[in-house]
From TrEMBL:
This is Uncharacterized protein. It comes from the Bacteria. It comes from Cryobacterium mannosilyticum.
Length: 210
């Protein structure tokens, strides 16, 4: 199951898997309400789980705070909890400038390649995209696991800046399947006019899901 979510801070919409939460970083009161709802949904209300709820809430607040400090406007998190990895996939979105003056449309692909030399540059329905991915080994607990890291750059419709997406997936899974999943998510991005974006509700009200 998938759902389309609107991101007011960027005037875009994106299709996310149904098991993902969408947290608007730039609206702190709203992000706090969404985090509280996520913790209840994922951990439950049992008094014996109070310590777990506190830990998960602190982890989510830390993720959002770090994203906010880095200038991000949105965080998307997988809701499948695994041992030692409360949220095994995360995606952070922000805007970054071009290197130097924004290029003309016919020079965008070359400029993206200059900015991310290891990237594959290709065209999706959402527009031209530069994407890199790699697998590193991390040790969140006692065991070492693979972490597939992806980075995307997409020119905005005006061409004056870039939508920057970083995804992190520390799970044991075929990395090419992970890349295909995130390519599909990125391909679902649609740019909205600001006046139209006001007609869309944030996904899920109190918990960030529709």
């Amino acid at each position: 199951m998938t759902r389309q979510v609107a991101m007011r801070a960027a005037d875009i919409s994106m299709v996310l898997p149904g098991s993902w939460a969408n947290i608007p970083v730039s609206e702190e009161p709203l992000s706090e309400r969404i985090i509280a709802g996520l913790v209840i949904r994922q951990v439950g209300r049992d008094d014996r789980l109070a310590r777990v709820r506190r830990e998960v809430k602190l982890q989510l607040r830390d993720v959002v705070a770090r994203a906010r400090a880095a200038g991000a406007f949105q965080v998307a998190l997988s809701l499948e909890i695994l041992p030692g990895i409360p949220f095994p996939a995360a995606m952070v979105l922000d805007f970054v400038p071009w290197n130097g003056e924004p290029p003309q449309p016919e020079r965008q692909a070359a400029t993206l390649k200059d900015m991310l030399p290891a990237a594959e540059v290709f065209t999706l329905e959402c527009g031209i995209v530069a994407r890199t991915w790699r697998v590193v080994q991390i040790q969140p607990g006692r065991e070492t696991i693979p972490d597939t890291k992806l980075e995307y750059l997409l020119p905005t419709p005006a061409g004056d800046q870039l939508l920057h997406i970083v995804a992190d997936t520390p799970v044991e899974c075929d990395p090419e399947m992970i890349v295909a999943l995130f390519d599909a998510i990125v391909d679902s991005i649609r740019w909205r006019e600001p006046a139209v974006a006001a007609d869309f509700e944030p996904a899920g009200g109190s918990d960030g899901n529709a």
